[in-house]
Here is the input.
Amino acid sequence: MKRALTHGSPATTRARAGIAGLALALLGVGAHGSAGTPAQWLQAIETEIGDARCSRDAACRTLPIGGLACGGPQDWRAWSTEASHAARLKSLAARHARAVRDEDHRLGRVSICQVRPEPAVHCEAQRCVLSRDEPLPPPSSR
Here is the structure.
């Protein structure tokens, strides 16, 4: 009898790790490389996040995406500690941000200086989602 993979199960975690590793290989990246376009890194991030399945709010986290010229992320993604590997996801996000900065510099792009506060995140219908209208409190009050 075949056993179905469930989000957060060891088999699912290994499968995600394999998919993320394959994505890195396709990008031509070794353990510490940063080759690849912003779009390719974003796809690898989306693959690692998957459907961000959760069973409670405490499993949900935010991930900064990209970077603006004067600092801070371009956007945020919700992800689940029950479905994604934190260190791998943060590494992918850092590589994506570097690729965005490198591409912007190479093409002479500039951006507006706009602060995009970290949004709150919660588990809704067993999926981590951003609460766009409700930013997180400052780190000192968390």
User: Anything to note?
Assistant: Residues 10-141 form one domain. The CA atoms of residues 34 and 95 lie 6 Å apart. Residues 86-107 form the longest helix (22 residues).
